[in-house]
Amino acid sequence: MLDENKVNEDAGTTESVITALQKVITLLDRIKNAIEDSSSKIPNASVQLNTVTEATELATVEILDVLDQMGTKIHMVENGLKEFDGKGIPERQLLMLTGIRQTLSELKENTSNITVALQVQDITAQKIGAANHLIESVRRELLNELNFFETAKLKTDEARRHVEEEKAGPKSFDVNASYMKTPEHQTKIDEVVTAWKENEKSS
Amino acid sequence: MASIKILIVDDSITIRRIITNALKTVGFTDTIEASNGKEALEKLPNGKVDFIITDWNMPEMNGLDFIKIVRSNPLYSSMPILMITTRGTEHDVVEALQAKVNSYIMKPFTPQELKEKIEGILKTVQVSTE
User: How far apart are CA B67 and CA B41, in angstroms?
Assistant: First the structure.
């Protein structure tokens, strides 16, 4: 009677273990599918980000072209106005000329400010490059995890090859690139440079 | 002063254009470009370059390695070099100075900053060669 109870108990335990294992296998399968799914989407995200960089670069160069043309035209008008330098010109027209020169000078400053602001494209590109690098790292980690699933091995190798092929965009970037540079920041840099040079002279 | 030839080394087309435009507005019109250190090294011997402006983070060969190679060549040991980069920590600046850059600007920069730095470098280079 006691033996029969023991056998029944063991059978129950074995059944529980099998059920638990089945649940674990199902869970692992779901994890594997999730990893495969996620890692296959990452190259698309990466490519999309590179497209953003390329598009903003193209647009920025077009804006710079326009600014270049504006600068040339402003320069031409300024040179043309030099012919009307004061001699025999009524006071009212002289005032107008001064006004035009002032406006041209402001326009030049505006174009210069736009040019400075366009540096944000490079800074953004570096940020995107850093984000892309991070995405690729995550993808590599996911692919490593996939290696644990024997059935996914072939797909993993295929996916890894795909990653190598897809690796595009800036490979060199400053993860801390920032557009928010204050005059104090450059002053600090200049102080470091000056101190270094003085130290070099004295040594 | 404005007749010097400047080599601009940056992987960003945008920044190369911006530097070229900025240089033009302050009187430096003679420029050539390279998109990384390796390309710059190829252009240097035949380019009759008087001054180098370089970025730090670039593919193929970064600005720091480029400067070290340039400085190791006796022909270019006194070549004026200005670094323009997004990197702005004290450690970065010191590292660039150790590689023997003459001056350092953090992006974003203004044409005026660029002019001041170039003129400042040229002045010290003239003084040291006199």
Answer: 10
Q: Give the C-alpha separation, A158 to A145, whole Å.
A: 15
The answer for residues whose C-beta is within 8 angstroms of residue A147's C-beta and 6 or more apart is A153, A156
In three-state secondary structure terms, B39 is helix
- Residue numbers in A near B109 (CB within 8 A): 116, 119
CA-based end-to-end distance of chain B: 16
* Contact at CB, B86 and A121, closer than 8 angstroms: no
Q: Which residues share a beta bridge with B106? A: B85
From chain A, pick out residues whose CB is under 8 angstroms from the CB of B59. Answer: 170-172
pLDDT averaged per 10 residues in sequence order, chain A, 203 residues: 75 87 87 82 84 92 93 91 78 88 94 91 90 86 75 55 50 75 85 90 81
Question: How much is the pTM?
Answer: 0.78
Query: Helix or strand or coil: residue B24?
Result: helix
DSSP string, chain A: -HHHHHHHHHHHHHHHHHHHHHHHHHHHHHHHHHHHHHHHHHHHHHHHHHHHHHHHHHHHHHHHHHHHHHHHHHHHHHHHHGGGSSTT--HHHHHHHHHHHHHHHHHHHHHHHHHHHTTHHHHHHHHHHHHHHHHHHHHHHHHHHHTTSGGGHHHHHHHHHHHHHH--S-S---TT--S---HHHHHHHHHHHHHHHHHHHH-
